[in-house]
Amino acid sequence: MDFMLSDSLMCLDMLHIGNQLAVLDDWMDWHHADVMDGHFCPNLTLSPDLVKAVCSVAKRPVEVHLMTERPGEWIERFAGAGAAMLSLHAETINAAAFRLMREVRAAGCRVGIVLNPATPLDSIRHYIDETDRLTLMTVDVGYAGQPMVPQVVSKIREAAAFKCKSGLSYEIQVDGCCNEKTYRTYAEAGAEMLVMGSGLFGLDTDLEKALQIMRQQQRAALAGMKQVACG
């Protein structure tokens, strides 16, 4: 089996982002833009203008991950910037989840839902069928390079089992601590897609070489595994 892959744009060298995107387009399925407002999590990253610039040259679609206290205020701006998917945190939308998800679709984007490590899957049971991609954070939001929260592995299994049982089609994405030590664990739990941050960009200063190392590590970790199937 192979994962679908998305690169974390916040990990790119912003002085060479155009050149790096050209390389990543040949390896990745998506680009992942982490938008942080300094309130929902203690960091500030990636503006609509930067996402617009990325979308203007990238060959792969861009997912915007809204780590913001008021995600509804950003839907039109990031949709207008060219995002193909807007992923909203359950922790910020549960008071208006259906309305905000409809707004995302009306803006022409696919809908993603994100859960922090301590947020249970049960919190989105009533609208999980409305999402195209379910992202499970395996680290607390804010910074790359954190250790995995091991309790999330059981939540990945739960999300995969519920998807099968309910006949749903959302993609199960893992964001956080995706590297050679965790690939097999995530795959066996049912993850289908990974957001590659420090587990890619920390492998080598030469991005092409880092991507080759990543591919080798993934193939070694997943050797002999078959695609996880329902039942």
Protein described:
It is a single chain. The protein is α/β, with parallel strands linked by helices. The chain has helices spanning 17-24, 48-57, 75-81, 90-93, 97-106, 152-166, 183-189, 198-201, 207-221, and strands spanning 4-8, 30-37, 44-45, 62-67, 85-89, 110-115, 133-137, 171-175, 193-196. Strand 2 and strand 3 (44-45) form a beta hairpin. Helix 2 (48-57) packs parallel to helix 3 and helix 6 packs parallel to helix 7 (183-189). It is globular. The model has no long low-confidence stretch (mean pLDDT 94).
Key descriptive features of the protein:
231 residues; alpha/beta; eight-stranded parallel barrel; 9 strands
Concise synopsis of the structure shown:
This protein has 231 residues and is an alpha/beta fold.
